[in-house]
């Protein structure tokens, strides 16, 4: 419908300008038609939902509608019929009188827009009324559900209250019956206990009397047994004491004999050690005298003097070296085999003290 309206407006403009109508163009692509449909839907949603349309909106609508647009593809039969159809021999005056004016186009567009707008508003009102009806029905349904739930809750509460009261009455009745039964059982147990106590009391008195007689007899028997045990224990103790005295005297004699033998053995061992030490000391003294004689003879020999001279020559000088001038002497890099005097290790030879012999 929209494309048809645009095509009509385009034909009217070409007729007013005196030019020939353009041939049908290639039909639009699906993407172009979809975008034009979306733009038209957006324009229809942006327009105000009232019956009045101002002049500025009408002009904008006319401008948008009069823009050139793609014309849908026509059938080959219609094109063929239009191509071979002879033109009507009409003059220029008749053509000019049949041309539609801009005001006619604007009035047609405004009337169609008003009709479309009225239909659109009517649909919106019908839709809102239907939504209100649905909402009202939903509210009534929820209200009815709440009333049914409240009614069911009251019935359940009343039934529960009746059940609770009946259970309470039955429980109280059972408690009273149980209390009466317990009281009767308590009285019966008390009578039985009194009878049992009397029987137990008589039996206990007899038992106490027999116990006293038995205790006296046991006391006499225990005293007699204790005396017999004491005499027997005393005799055994006397025997044990005599035996211990004899063993003690024998042990003392053995200890004195062992001490005497140990003392003799120690004295003999000390004498042997003393003689061994004296012999060892005498031998060591003679050996030391022999060593001193050999040492004295070696100290007087030439070999000892040579060794003493070498030892003294290896010692450090007692005073450091003092340079002859204030110049630093030239240093020579020594080989690996030669070492400096200061780098020599300090060797201390342990010497024995000279003997007086």
Describe what you observe in this structure.
With 357 residues, the protein is an all-alpha fold. The chain has a domain at 2-84 and 95-100. The protein is built from seven helices and no strands. 0% of the residues are buried. Mean pLDDT is 73; it is low at 19-98. One of its GO terms (cellular component) is astral microtubule. This is Coiled-coil domain-containing protein 34. One of its GO terms (molecular function) is microtubule binding.
List the defining traits of the structure above.
357 residues, mainly alpha, 7 helices
- SS content category: mainly alpha
Strand count: 0
Distance between the termini: 155 Å
Q: Name the beta content range.
A: under 5%
Strand and helix layout:
Elements: H1 2-17, H2 30-46, H3 55-66, H4 76-84, H5 92-98, H6 102-299, H7 302-313
What's this entry about, in short?
GO terms for molecular function: microtubule binding. By secondary structure, the protein is mainly α.
């Amino acid at each position: 419908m929209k494309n048809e309206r645009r095509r009509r407006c385009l034909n009217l403009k070409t007729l007013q300008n005196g030019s020939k109508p353009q041939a049908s163009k290639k039909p639009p692509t699906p993407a172009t038609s979809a975008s034009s449909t979306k733009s038209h839907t957006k324009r229809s949603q942006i327009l105000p939902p009232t019956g009045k349309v101002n002049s500025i909106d009408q002009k904008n609508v006319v401008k948008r509608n009069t823009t050139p647009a793609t014309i849908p593809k026509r059938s080959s039969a219609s094109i063929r019929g239009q191509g071979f159809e002879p033109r009507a021999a009409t003059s220029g005056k008749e053509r000019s009188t049949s041309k539609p004016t801009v005001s006619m186009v604007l009035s047609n567009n405004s009337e169609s827009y008003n009709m479309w707008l009225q239909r659109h508003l009517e649909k919106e009102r019908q839709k809102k009324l239907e939504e209100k009806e649905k909402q009202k029905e939903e509210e009534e349904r929820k209200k009815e559900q709440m009333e049914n739930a409240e009614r069911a809750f009251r019935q359940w509460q009343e039934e529960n209250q009746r059940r609770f009261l009946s259970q309470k009455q039955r429980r109280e009745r059972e408690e009273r019956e149980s209390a009466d039964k317990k009281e009767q059982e308590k009285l019966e147990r008390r009578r039985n206990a009194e009878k049992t106590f009397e029987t137990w009391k008589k039996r206990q008195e007899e038992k106490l009397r027999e116990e006293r007689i038995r205790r006296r007899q046991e006391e006499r028997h225990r005293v007699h047994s204790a005396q017999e045990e004491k005499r027997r224990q005393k005799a055994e103790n006397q025997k044990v004491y005599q035996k211990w005295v004899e063993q003690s005297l024998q042990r003392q004699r053995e200890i004195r004999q062992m001490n005497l033998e140990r003392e003799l053995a120690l004295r003999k061992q000390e004498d042997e050690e003393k003689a061994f030490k004296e012999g060892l000391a005498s031998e060591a003294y003679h050996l030391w005298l022999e060593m001193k004689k050999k040492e004295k003879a070696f100290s007087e020999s030439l070999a000892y003097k040579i060794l003493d001279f070498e030892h003294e020559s290896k010692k450090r000088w007692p005073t450091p070296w003092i340079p002859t001038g204030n110049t630093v002497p030239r240093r020579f890099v020594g080989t690996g085999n030669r070492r400096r005097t200061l780098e020599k290790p300090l060797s201390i030879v342990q010497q024995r003290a000279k003997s007086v012999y």
